[in-house]
Amino acid sequence: MPTDPATGSIPPISENSASTAPPERADEVMLEGPHSRLDEFFTLFRVMADFLRGFRALHFVGPCVTVFGSARIHVDSPYYEMARQVGAGLVRLGFTVMTGGGPGIMEAANRGAREAGGRSVGCNIKLPHEQAPNEYLDRSVTLFYFFVRKTLLIKYSYAFVVMPGGAGTLDELFEALTLIQTGKIRNFPIVVMGTDYWRELTSLLEKMARLGTIGLPDLSLVFVTDSVEAAIEHIRVRAIEPFGLKRVVRRHIPWLGEQGLNAGS
């Protein structure tokens, strides 16, 4: 049984139970190994509740583009401004901008969408150190499980913009790329912004293609650029035109507690 790194003591048994663990420890408890049958049953219900909360919050947000990137980018960074311009450009195409709902790049993309008069949503995550939703969200849902959050960020999106980021951003990029490569989702465009920042990554992908660990056509799944205009045009050509996207307003049922989404709501 794991010990508390701060005290060296074993946490109370209730904190290692799926039925009573605090939300910020949901992933940790689920992944630490087998639990009792009853605990595993409770885990299934908590995961289902996480998905249900996400489905209810995001069903009416419209076709999205998800912007991935670091929570550690500050407002004075050129990457913050780039993400802000990307958010504005996406709403001019008619998309809702979706992010992980936190600070940094996520805030910048949501801010750009809000300032351009578009719709802005976020899928936040409950962490031991609180990550508060940023102030530019028309709708936000806070989730307990990382894999649920990642699934929702992909489920509602027709393109993905990858801004500079860390391990989480790499995880999200390769999740989307793998799903497209294996045909689990359709060939939605992936735009990677920041040629200098991602130079070693693009070199690695080219090396993998040369060595045959990925196919040469897989390189065309990722479009790398520094130009916001080029990124927006690539998404228009690769997402809107092939899939015939247009805004569809789904009818919500108020007596089920459902709410539509308007920009600035």
Mean pLDDT: 89
Spatial ordering of strands, largest sheet: 4-3-2-1-5-6-7
- Beta strand count: 7
Shape: globular
Give a quick account of the main beta sheet: strands, pairing sense, barrel closure. 7 strands, parallel
CATH architecture of the domain at 63-122 and 157-246: 3-Layer(aba) Sandwich
Report helical residue fraction: 40-55%
Computed CA radius of gyration, to the nearest angstrom: 20 Å
Low-confidence stretches: 10-14
Q: What pattern of helices and strands is seen along the backbone?
A: HHEHEHEEHEHEHEH
Text of the CATH class of the domain at 63-122 and 157-246? Alpha Beta
Would you give the CATH topology of the domain at 63-122 and 157-246? Rossmann fold
Helix/strand structural class: alpha/beta
- Percent of residues in beta strands? 5-15%
CA-CA gap between termini: 46 Å
Overview of this protein structure:
By secondary structure, this protein is α/β, with parallel strands linked by helices. It has a domain at 63-122 and 157-246: Rossmann fold, CATH 3.40.50. Helices cover 41% and strands 13% of the residues. The protein contains 8 helices and 7 strands. The protein has helices at residues 26-31, 37-58, 78-92, 105-115, 146-155, 167-181, 199-211, 228-243, and strands at residues 64-68, 96-99, 120-125, 139-143, 157-162, 190-193, 222-225. It has a 7-stranded parallel beta sheet with strand order 4-3-2-1-5-6-7, sandwiched between helices. Helix 3 (78-92) crosses helix 4 and helix 3 (78-92) packs parallel to helix 8 (228-243). The radius of gyration is 20 Å and the shape is globular.
